[in-house]
Amino acid sequence: MRLRDKTVLITGGSSGIGLATASLMLREGARVAMTGRDAAKLEEVKKQLPADVLTIAADVTSLTDLQRVHDEVKQVFGGLDVFFANAGVAFVTPLMETSTARYDELMDINVKGVFFSMQTIAPLLREGASVILNTSWLNQVGTPGLSLLSASKAAVRSLAQTWSAELLGRKIRVNAVSPGAIDTFIHSRSGGSADDINAAKQRIAARIPLKHLGEAEDIAQAALFLASDESRYMLGAEIVVDGGFSQL
Ligand SMILES: NC(=O)c1ccc[n+]([C@@H]2O[C@H](COP(=O)([O-])OP(=O)(O)OC[C@H]3O[C@@H](n4cnc5c(N)ncnc54)[C@H](OP(=O)(O)O)[C@@H]3O)[C@@H](O)[C@H]2O)c1
Fold first, then answer.
1. How far apart are CA 169 and CA 178, in angstroms?
2. What's the CATH fold of domain 7-182+215-241?
3. Best exposed site among 3, 98, 148, 247 by fewest CB in 10 Å?
């Protein structure tokens, strides 16, 4: 019960890493609120969780939605001990083929969404709260076609450092978790066939030192550590959980 009676908000809790983290933090005694854009999906996954959660259908690109998240969390929890800014998307954006609309879509969710989620939620954070940002192993390497995804995650990595400095007076710690290739729904969202997606996963797995994709639970465990007081001496840091992909 490493988060006994702690209150937690997770954006993008209806799937993958956010859902696994919600489940783990509930098992560790936390009260959890989570968001996603799809209200029906939130209701569906709620049934799989080991305890009751507060679900709020909200898009991180909408300031109105974010304010509603703030208001509901304030009303039900009063304040927050942990905020996991996890909602994000991933798709390819080749330099010569990417429209401004596609640019805006990715950057609005992955960077602007994180920035304004934090701005809206920050007043709810209690002294000593822990904020976890979800970045990516891509934040420091060059991969053809992934410029915007990589740049968005480098921006998120940077925000953990600046916000830790900015919120030092309130004793709020902001750290990042950096997943490698994790087997979640994110890989299917780009619209390829199931065979294409499986083939792509196998190609990626072959390049990972541990030879398999990670599980959402692997990232949830790192997020739990960053959420708990066990990481109390960490500020502005990044935990890489990628089967050795970016390190070996
Ligand atoms: N899986 C990987 O290999 C990997 C690697 C590195 C980093 N990451 C990062 O990990 C995070 C979670 O990804 P995942 O793999 O768990 O993907 P996922 O299974 O697709 O889950 C993404 C979650 O974010 C929500 N979401 C997406 N856009 C949103 C928006 N505009 N507003 C609110 N919620 C939104 C989704 O719900 P709705 O669709 O219902 O809105 C869903 O709950 C992302 O930030 C991703 O970039 C993943």
1. 26
2. Rossmann fold (3.40.50)
3. 247
